Amino acid sequence: MVDDGRTRGRATLDGVEHSAVSRPRREARSRWTFQETAARQVGPSTKGYGERVDAACQTCEPALVRTAGRPPHDIDIVRTIDALKLRVDSGSMRYVRGDVPLEDMLALARSDLKYTIVSYLECDECGRTWFWGLCIRGAPIYESVEADAPAGHSWSAVPARERWA
Ligand SMILES: [Zn+2]
Predict the structure, then answer these.
(1) How far lies 135's CA from each of 24, 98, 108, 113, in Å?
(2) CA dihedral 49, 47, 44, 94 (to 10 degrees)
(3) pLDDT tens digits for 24-61?
(4) 8 CA → ligand 1 middle, Å
(5) What is the DSSP letter of 45?
(6) How much distance in Å is there from the Cα of 119 to the middle of ligand 1?
(7) How remote is the CA of residue 10 from the centroid of ligand 1, in Å?
């Protein structure tokens, strides 16, 4: 009887070891996983972007529209794109650079022809630069980045438009 208990205990330990072994595979899935984690750890209102953003910015931060889904899969892509377009059209945010115009990002993502579709925007209110990225294998990302991030981004070719739109 006591031996049975020990055996069961060992079995449980083995199980834990197995799951620990399989974890690196998930972490190595893609660099996007790392960015998602970084985005949640840093958050939009963290210090380091200047004194002007001590309070949450009411222009760029509410542009991210969430769903009831589980993080990081809790971003409403369509409504977030609409919110960003609204701000660009009204001049409260500036479209810095992207693979395709904001309104074309989803069509390109759905085509499965490009792994990541990226846009950079700058908030006129707080001055921060934002990364807005869709990934066909992962969750979308909306995070504030350094101002020189658009210039440092390794842009990749966009498939011919007639293939996806
Ligand atoms: Zn802002």
Answers:
(1) 21, 14, 10, 11
(2) -10
(3) 444 444 444 444 444 444 444 444 444 444 579 999 99
(4) 55
(5) T
(6) 16
(7) 53
